[in-house]
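I hope you will forgive my troubling you with a question about protein structure. Could you please explain, in whatever detail you think fit, how the structure tokens follow from the sequence? Thank you for your consideration; the sequence and its tokens are set out here.
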Amino acid sequence: MTVPPRANVLLVEDDPGLSRTLTDRLRAEGYDVVAVRDGVRAIAAALEGRADAIVLDVMLPGKDGIEVLKEVRAHGIRTPVIMLTARDQVEDKVVALKLGADDYVTKPFRALELLARLEAVLRRARGAPLAPHEQVVTFGVWSIDLEREVLSGPGGPVELSRTEFELLRYLLQRRGHPVAREELLREVWRYAPSAVSRTVDQHVAQLRRKLERGAQGTGRHILTVHGRGYLFRS
């Protein structure tokens, strides 16, 4: 694993054994880790602003992970968040993505999977250089400022999670061409193309909802091309 220098992780997991195991593994991989076991302490630690990424369990005492995420985002904290969810918590996954979670890992999971996803969200959070002539792009009723990371429509700015923004950026760059899920996993999430994940579909669905709601039904920009992936049209 390639860890960005001095990457700080806030780990929020109430199971003592799992918390210790993950803390030890993250530190062995070069991360600095702060571990807490309840929602109230998680919010306090997140608001300190020291974490580069947050690994957040859904089931927590005090306040659950969904409440923690909602409150953290309400305070304007855009730190990447990976949710830890149980296999049957489909609704929690959808709600978490809507509230601005960047990814999720389903329990039980291997440490290598969490490490790969953590490394990916940290890479995305650090961003990539932008071409000056592509800093502002318009499509339909929308205008996206790639430098300021602001999407604006008829009703004003629309809030996007960092993952949603990077997904929209990449689809814009490839507009007019179908983009396979494997390509999105590789180029946006930085996962191996062989990875199996529904997170692409979940994020595309959420991005679609935001675009269609903001445009008040004036047009759909992200199309599904059967057997080929997603296509962005202006």
Q: What stands out?
A: The helical segments are 16-28, 39-47, 65-74, 90-99, 111-126, 162-173, 181-189, 199-215. The chain has two domains: 8-126, 132-232.
